[in-house]
Structures are given as structure tokens and as C-alpha cells.
Design a protein that fits this description.
The protein is built from 13 helices and six strands. It is α+β, with helices and mostly antiparallel strands. The protein has three domains: 2-17 and 31-90, no CATH class; 93-124; 139-251, Chitinase A, domain 3. The chain has a three-stranded antiparallel sheet.
Length: 289
């Protein structure tokens, strides 16, 4: 809506520019930028013009580089200044509605700035830790990891919250050897929405990319063999290994680098747990039990 309004104003403000005097009432340069016009002694500079033009879409950016387009866009900027001057004369800037809107905007900007500052601080820390080797990964480390795990595994799985229910389902699945049958059980019994919807489909993983409690039995099981139930913090997992694929070094190296980085970061975070005090409200602890 704002873009449509802006475009309409640009196209309808041609007459406005023709009413301006050629002689500027103030300095021809303001803040090291040529002054294009004054409205109630307030300058519109070339820098103001360029900054506003940068917010236009590409077609209008080209339009304002033409003589008529430049005149139209300057007319639009003059119109905006006129509206601002009139709003202040009418005391709109002093109304409770306007003040409340500005206060909300300022609070949002403060929160956004704080978020951006924290993000930059964390990023700079991680870059520093990578440089000093704390979480950095060498080519040799990647190659050593690849020698151990030059493959990825694909499983199907679903999660059941209640242990007794998981045991009962496992008994029913004793002779299941097909992915379609496994998917039927997942859709019927899973307590986890995604696996219930997908029939237990999971993206393939290199050991280290998923939960260790799941990776080990998955790696050691035969294809199309149901394993479970395996208990993690998420619940009771029932899994089926459906594929195992050898990866080339080039296919695996970036993923392995991330695995090692994450393992090192986990170790570093564990050291911070001992360095800094952490307190969690009892209500939150009980909620997650």
C-alpha cells in the first residue's frame, strides 16, 4: 500500500515543482550536500534525494534518473515536507495517539538493536574461538573422522511417550520388514506430529549428526530390521534402518566439519556451565519432566 501511494504521489506532483522559485532562500550546500530545495526553511539535499530514491523499486530508480523523473521525485519530496510542516503546525506530533505510536516504535528499535548487538557479540566470540583452535577444525581432523564414518544412514522412526504402549507396539511389529508397514504403524501410534504425518520418514545422517542413542543401534542393525524401543529425552523411539550409503570425501567433508565444530562447541559450553551460575525456575523443571 505504501509503495502504491508513493508511486501515485510521484506521478501526480508534477505541477508542484513548477511553482518553486529558482533562487534558494538559504545556503546552497547543507551538511556537505548540495541543497535542491527548501520547504519552510528546511533543506532537501542531494543526499536526501538519493537516500529516498534507493527505497524505490528498480523501474522507478531508472525513472528518477531522467530529467522529468528527477523533477517529479523532487516534487514528491517537497510534498512530504509540506505534509510534515502542516502536521507540526496542527500539533499532531503532540497528540497522545502519535506519542504512543512513537514510543512503541522506539521500544521496538531498542529491542531490535539489543538483539543485533548480542548476535554480533556471539558471532565475534565464535570467530575468535575458531581462530584460536577452541572450536576450529583442521583438515586432518575431518579426514580422521571420515575414515571412521564414510557413510550416511537413513532410518524411519516414530516416538511414543508411554513406555508400556511402546513395548506393546514393539511386540506387534516383531515381524515387520517393509517400509510401508512401518509407516502404517507410525501413522497409527506416533505421539510426535511430524513422524505421524510422514510415516516415520527421516533425513539421512552421518554418525554425529543425530542422537547417539539412535545412531549406534541404527548403524549396527540390518536393513529393514525394526529396533526399539530406545529411550531418549524425546520419548521412546522405534526405528527401522532403510538405507546405508557410502559417501565420497568431497560429499562428506562439509558435514563432518560441522559435526566436529558442534562437538567442540558442546564441550566449550559444558565448561561455561561450570564457570557461570545457572538457575532454572522449579516450575520450568517440573514442566519438562
Amino acid at each position: 500500500m505504501k509503495k502504491i501511494l508513493t508511486i501515485t504521489l510521484i506521478l501526480t506532483c508534477v505541477a508542484c515543482s513548477s511553482r518553486q522559485d529558482n533562487n534558494l532562500p538559504g545556503p546552497a550546500v547543507y551538511n556537505n550536500s548540495p541543497v535542491l530545495a527548501y520547504v519552510d526553511n528546511q533543506p532537501i539535499t542531494q543526499r536526501d534525494f538519493d537516500n529516498a530514491a534507493n527505497n524505490l523499486d528498480d523501474n522507478f530508480k531508472k525513472f528518477v534518473t531522467t530529467k522529468s523523473g528527477r523533477a517529479n521525485f523532487l516534487s514528491f519530496l517537497i510534498s512530504e515536507k509540506l505534509l510534515l510542516a502542516d502536521a507540526k503546525d496542527r500539533g499532531i506530533d503532540l497528540t497522545p495517539e502519535y506519542q504512543a505510536e512513537i514510543a512503541a516504535m522506539e521500544e521496538g528499535q531498542r529491542a531490535a538493536l539489543e538483539t543485533a548487538k548480542n548476535f554480533a557479540l556471539r558471532r565475534n566470540l565464535l570467530e575468535s574461538l575458531a581462530k584460536d583452535g577452541t572450536i576450529g577444525v583442521s583438515e586432518e581432523e575431518i579426514k580422521d573422522y571420515y575414515k571412521k564414518y564414510p557413510y550416511e544412514i537413513t532410518i524411519k522412526q516414530f516416538i511414543i511417550s508411554d513406555a508400556q504402549k511402546a513395548a506393546d507396539v514393539m511386540r506387534q511389529m516383531r515381524n515387520v520388514r517393509s517400509t510401508s508397514k512401518f509407516a502404517d504403524f507410525a501413522r497409527q501410534f506416533s505421539d510426535e506430529p511430524l513422524s505421524k504425518k510422514s510415516g516415520g520418514d527421516m533425513p539421512p545422517f552421518i554418525p554425529g549428526e543425530y542422537l547417539p542413542q539412535i545412531e549406534v543401534p541404527a548403524a549396527n542393525s540390518k536393513l529393514m530390521e525394526v529396533q526399539g524401543f530406545i529411550t531418549t529425552a524425546q520419548g521412546h523411539h522405534i526405528i527401522m534402518k532403510v538405507a546405508e550409503k557410502h559417501l565420497t570425501y568431497n560429499e562428506a567433508k562439509d558435514r563432518i566439519k560441522m559435526i566436529i565444530e558442534n562437538h567442540k562447541l558442546d564441550s566449550y559450553l559444558n565448561s561455561l556451565n561450570k564457570k557461570y551460575n545457572i538457575s532454572i525456575a522449579k516450575e520450568e523443571i517440573n514442566e519438562n519432566k
